[in-house]
Amino acid sequence: MKISLNWLKDYIDLSGLSVDEISSKLTMSGLEVEDVYNEYEKYKDFVVGKVTHTEKHPNADKLSLCKVSTGNNEYQVVCGAPNVAEGQKVIFAPVGTLIPKGNFKITKAKIRGVESVGMLCAEDELELGNDHSGILVLDGNLKEGTKITDALNLNDVVFEVAITPNRPDALSHIGVARDLTAIFNKKLLIPEVKLNTIDEDINSAASIEVNDKLNCPRYTAIVVKDVTIKESPDWLKTRLTKIGLRPINNVVDITNYVMHEVGQPLHAFDLDTLAGKKIVVKHYDQETKFTTLDSKERKLEAGSLYICDGEKPVGIAGVMGGENSEITNKTKNILIESAYFNPSSIRKTAKDTGISTDASYRFERGSNPNITRWACERAAELIGSLGEGKILKGVIDVYPDKILPKQIEIRYSRVEKVLGYKISNEKIKTILKNLEFKIVSEDENSLTVEVPTFRPDVEREIDIIEEAARINGYDNIPEVSKITVTLSKKFDASEFADKTRMTSSALGLFEMINNPLQNDKTASLIGSKVPMLNPQSLDMAYLRTSLIPGALNTIAKNINVGEKNVYLFEIGNVFNKKIDGDIKSFNDFTETTKFLIIISGKESLKSWQNVEKDIDIFSLKSIVNSYLYDVGLGDEFADIYNIEENTIFDLYYNKKLKTEVIGEGGRVNKQTLKQFDIDQDVYCFEFNIDLLKMIEKKPKKYQEPLKYPKVLRDFAFVFDKSILYDNIVNFIKQEGSGLLKSVELFDIFESESLGKDTRSLAFSLEYYSEERTLKEDEVEKAFSSLIDKITKKFNAKLRG
Predict the structure, then answer these.
(1) How confident is the model at residue 34 (pLDDT cuts 50, 70, 90)?
(2) How many Å apart are CA 330 and CA 312, to the nearest integer?
(3) Taking residues 527-540, what's their average pLDDT?
(4) From 444's CA, which of 43, 302, 436, 799 has a CA 20 to 30 Å away?
(5) Quick count: other Cβ atoms within 10 Å of Cβ 488?
(6) Are the C-beta atoms of residues 566 and 599 closer than 8 Å to each other?
(7) Percent of the chain having pLDDT more than 90?
(8) Which residues are 340's β-sheet partners?
(9) What is the DSSP letter of 406?
(10) pLDDT per residue over 420-442, tens digit each?
(11) DSSP code for 243
């Protein structure tokens, strides 16, 4: 939406404020200024010149040699315009002037051997129109030397403001001025309307009937007789053209002017074309056809709201008037419509018809139901003045169910809590008063305000808080050097199991509870079995040494009944002998709480948007790592890969904290699965909860986003298979300089072409600094040095 600075000054004193300051403050308050068109800056160097003499150019038939006076000085100008003549007042661009079209600067030049020190301008060269047939000839009464900005009223600044859908109140100059009054703590100047009416009552000339009060809660009308339809005065045409509107005639221009002044769309009907001299607001129950002002026949769906006369439709409510009642040069008597329509009704009609007008744009967002009369009277006053019309006494105002302002309580403590900083109570009150929120009551802790009906977006306390924040200025929010969120360092032992259950459920795992008593074969799979003194049966003769065997039995049962995709977890105690020989006391065996994650089947099923994927070791690692991060232990452990001491996994890894194994798992080997009649891969990981809950958590801290760019480097080396991955990664991290922040393995490759008992490992490295942008040569130096160190340390070969 375009907003004229000169127009704004009718409603607020902006003296002493720069264009940049106004633009910046509007943007920071939520009314984003997308562009600023400064006419004065564009035309400040152009002046009125008088052509005192012309003659043919001595070396060119189509050029003229002119003398141009600016009052104090005279210049020689070569001109190619066919209409240049002695005595004309023209627009003269001296040397150094920037021409808008083409964006080039005037310089002293020789044209066909004759010096020229300026330019006489055509309309299109100044971007004042499209005419290039000749130079623009000005009013002969203008004084030479006068700046064009003054002579042609080219001294305005137009802001292109992006209005969000929730701010219909800002779709006008008064609306924008209102925000500026709050921002700069100024006074809002609303024009006073004075109607000079004749002694003829409006009810004798027209009547209004509203049949659809749901979609038209208010309809206001004024009648003006004996109007002279003519061209608008220059001041009115100038204001409309500045914001991109085309002047039509004084009546239509006034309705547009008032709409852009206060945000209330208006429509003027030719009263003499209205059958029965009446307006009926209603909808039709069937599809109807109607010819609008643009001479196009429209089809409207059943239920669309119409403005009708005594016989027929004369306008699509809130969208566009009809051709059958438009203002023409023959119009004498007019009826001014100013109404409030249900936004959803107008939105639906505009969408169905494909028509978007300035009126529908405002109505569908929610206009002010309590401004219709003022806007109607304002238009009538101007039409009476500029169109020599006679305003009939009285206003028809159909408003059966008044729309009353909402009242909202705002707590000062709540403002501070939500915003995170304090705005003084007096400042909050001043802001709200300047925004025309009426203070109904107040005490030291809160105040209750009445929300003006032009602010349908303000519904709750939080909306009021937002108003205080945006007007106070988002740029005034105090800077916080660092935000730190600190959690408890130690786990509460009684809550740890519950936390683990919640996290596991959130990760998509289902809890199982298995019997802690097992048979000899199952209990012998892992650990050192603990026999029962008096077992009830051979199947329950031993205490379990691990949660894994019981879980494998549960997996097998699920697969046997057709549930092949299984995601499970269990928390329980396990028991292991500490001695060789018979158990004689409780000191001869251990009791440990374990947490098991076990998964099998598909990670994703085949569908229109997914490919089928089996669960693998990385699926397991993802769940394990997610669990640790959620309980606050994500960065505490090292992953160790080693299968020498394990008997049930063919892919194995464990989590270590320094030298302590906190958990272990991997892919269960085929031999073990065969014992449970399982014919699909199973992955599991078992944590020692007694150890986990003793670990101190590191406080979680907010880390600011990196300000400087990362530099990425990749390399791949051929290593002997006997070299452990962890040793390689740890070496890279230790020797990679302080600029190296991350090392990730992204490819493993084995082939006879590489050599027997070798494999290729490819790593991605991230270099960056939190204090500055890195230089290419320092990264290259660190990277090259690292390559040399790896080559020597591991006798590795760099792959090309």
Answers:
(1) very high
(2) 21
(3) 82
(4) 436
(5) 10
(6) yes
(7) 70
(8) 218
(9) E
(10) 899 999 999 999 999 999 999 99
(11) T
Task: Quote the pLDDT of residue 700.
Answer: 65
Q: How far is CA 284 from the centre of its chain?
A: 39
How does pLDDT run across 244-280, given as a tens digit for each residue? 999 999 999 999 999 999 999 999 999 999 999 999 9
Q: What is the pLDDT of residues 20-32, one digit of tens each?
A: 999 999 999 999 9
pLDDT at 50 over 60: yes
Cα 404 from Cα 370, distance rounded (Å): 9
For residues 748-772, give the mean pLDDT.
89
Say what percent of the chain tops pLDDT 70. 96
Residue 637 to residue 620: CA distance in whole angstroms: 16
Q: How does residue 509 score in pLDDT terms, banded at 50, 70 and 90?
A: very high
Pair 334, 269: CB distance under 8 Å: yes
The tokens of 740 are what? Answer: 């190296």
Exposure b/e, 124-139, CB count within 10 A at least 16 = b: ebbebeeeeebbbbbe
Residue 436's alpha-carbon distances to 2, 93, 376, 446, in angstroms, are: 23, 47, 21, 18
Rounded Cα distance between 727 and 723, Å, is: 7
pLDDT at 201 over 70: yes
Non-local CB neighbours of 765 within 8 Å, separated by 6+ positions: 712, 713, 714, 715, 732, 736, 740, 742, 743, 783, 786
- Alpha helix locations (H) across 479-613? 493-506, 520-523, 548-560
For the range 238-245, what are the long-range contacts, defined as Cβ-Cβ under 8 Å and sequence gap of 24 or more? 238/153, 239/4, 239/6, 239/7, 242/2, 242/4, 242/6, 242/7, 242/156, 242/158, 243/2, 243/3, 243/4, 243/7, 243/158, 244/2
| Residue of higher predicted confidence among 337 and 650 | 337
689 neighbors 668 (Cβ within 8 angstroms): no
Whether pLDDT at 639 is above 80: no
Q: What's the rounded Cα separation, in Å, for the pair 378 and 222?
A: 10
Distance CA 464, CA 451 (A): 9
Strands 649-657 and 542-543: unpaired
Residue 793 structure tokens = 């340390």
- Cα 82 to Cα 618: distance, rounded to the nearest angstrom: 82
Q: Which of 308, 146, 90, 332 is nearest to 226 (CA)?
A: 332
Distance CA 436, CA 453 (A): 10
Which one of 128-132, 170-174, 419-423 scores highest in mean pLDDT?
A: 170-174
Other CB atoms within 10 Å distance of the CB of residue 52: 14
Tokens standing for 412? 């000062």
- Comparing CA positions, the residue from 554, 542, 546 lying closest to residue 514 is 554
Model pTM score: 0.62
Burial of 775 (0-12, 13-18, 19+ CB in 10 A): exposed
Strand partners, 188: none
H or E, element range at 236 = helix 234-242
Dist. CA 347–CA 362, nearest whole Å: 10
Q: Please, which residues have CB within 8 angstroms of residue 391's CB and are 6 or more apart in sequence?
A: 195, 196, 197, 198, 222, 223, 224, 380, 381, 383, 384
Neighbours of 108 (CB within 10 A): 10
Residue pointed to by tokens 């300035």 = 358
The whole-angstrom separation of Cα 163 and Cα 180 is: 15
Q: Is 348 exposed, middle or buried (0-12, 13-18, 19+ CB in 10 A)?
A: middle
Q: How many residues does the chain have?
A: 800
For position 604, what pLDDT does the model report? 84
